[in-house]
Amino acid sequence: MTPRLHELTATQVLELLQNNTVTVETYARRLLDHVKETESIVKAWAFLDPGLVIAQAQTLDQVPVGERGPLHGLAIGVKDIMNSKGKTTTTEFAVTNSGPDTTNPCDPKRTPGGSSCGSAAAVAALHVPLSLGSQTGGSLIRPASFTGVYALKPTFNTISTEGQKAIAPIFDTCGFFARCVEDLKILADVFGIEDDEPARDMLLGEMSIALMKTPMWPTAGPGTISAIEAVTVILRERGIKVEEVSFPPEISDPEELDRLQQVITQAEARISFLREYRIDKDNLAPEICEIVENTARITHKEREQASDRYSHIRRIISDLARGYTVILTPSAEDEAPVGLGDMGRATFNTIWTVSVPLYLSVTLQADVL
C-alpha cells in the first residue's frame, strides 16, 4: 500500500517538495487534516494556527526551486519552551513530572513521557515528521522510548539554546525526534553537528559495542530487560562483538549519581526561575517554587563539590567507552506507565546527560536490525 502524504518520512517528503512534485500547501493541508482527526485524543499541541500554517505554505510555494533551503516546506514541531509560532506541549517549564494531558499515540491510556511529551507524541502520531525538544535529565530519550520514535540528544553546546527557556544551562540540550535515523541526520546537518573524525565505512564485524547496564540496572523492569537481551542476541547474530562493561566501584552508587545531578540541576534552576517566581509565584507549580525557595537547602559548597565530582565521572565514563564503536544502554526503566499522572523516571538517562564527548562518526555498510 502506498503511504499517504502525512505518513511519509521527512527524507521522503523533502524530495517531493524540493522537486515540486507536491506543493507545500498540499502537504500542509494533509497534515492539518490528520491533526484535526487525531488531536482530540493525542493532545500534542499547546498552540497551532492552521491559518498561519497555510499562509506560510503558500509563501513557500512561490520560492524558486533553485533557492529552496534544506528544510523547505517540512513541518517541524517545536517544544513549548522555545520561541516560535507553533508549540507542542510540555510540562510546566519542562520541570514538573505531570501537567499536560498529552497521550501516548501507541496507547492513549499511557503517558508519552516528559517533558518533551508533545514533541514525541506529534512525531509518533504522524502530525509532523520532525520535532524539536530538550533534555536536562531525560526529556528526549525517555519520551522517544515510550512512543516508539527516534531521538538524538547531542553533546552539550553542540546546538545553541538561544531562544529556549533555561532550566539548568550546564545540562540543557536542544535535540530532536524523528521516525527514522535518516531524518535525524537531516536536522543534524542543518544544525551543523560535526564529529572530530570524518565518517568512515565499517563492516558490522568490525564493530565493538559496550553494553553498559549502569548501576541503575536493578530498577529495570521486565520490558527493558527483555529488550536489552533481545537486541544483544540480534547484534551478536550479525557478527558484532557485544561486551558487557561494568562501572568501577567509585561510580557505582546509584543514589550518589542521582543526588549529584539533582544538586547541580536545582542549584541552576533556582537562578533560572527566580524572575518568574518574583513576578507570579502563585501560578507556578509547587515543585518550581520549592526549587527557587531552596527547600532542599543546597549550599554553594555542595554545588561546587557536585560539579567537581561530575567532571571526574565524565572522564571515567569517557575512558570506559574508548575502544568501542557504540554504547548500548537502556532508555527507560520499563514500558510507558499507565495513566497520565506519572511520566516515568529518568533513572537511566541522567548519567548520560553528563555526556560522553567522543565525537566519533561511523557509516555502517549493512542493516543491523
Could you tell me the CATH topology label: Amidase signature (AS) enzymes
Arithmetic mean of pLDDT: 91
Q: State the order of secondary-structure elements, H for helix, E for strand.
A: HHEHEEHEHEEHEEHEHHHHEE
What percent of the residues sit in helical stretches (DSSP H or I)?
25-40%
Number of discrete domains:
1
Report the count of strand segments.
11
Percent strand: 5-15%
List low-pLDDT spans: 355-369
Write the CATH homologous superfamily. Answer: Amidase signature (AS) domain
The strands making up the biggest β-sheet line up spatially as 2-4-6-5
Describe this structure in words.
- The chain has a 4-stranded mixed sheet, with helices on both faces.
- It is α/β, with parallel strands linked by helices and 369 residues long.
- Strand 8 (208-211), helix 7 (222-237) and strand 9 (241-244) form a beta-alpha-beta unit.
- The chain contains 11 helices and 11 strands.
- The longest helix has 22 residues, at 300-321.
- The chain has a single domain (5-251, 308-364), classed as Amidase signature (AS) enzymes (Alpha-Beta Complex), CATH 3.90.1300.
- It starts with 9 loop residues before the first helix and ends in a 5-residue tail after the last strand.
- Helix content is 37%, strand content 11%.
- It has helices at 10-18, 24-42, 50-61, 117-124, 141-147, 181-190, 222-237, 254-272, 274-280, 286-292, 300-321; strands spanning 45-47, 76-78, 87-88, 130-135, 150-152, 173-178, 200-202, 208-211, 241-244, 326-328, 362-364.
- It is globular.
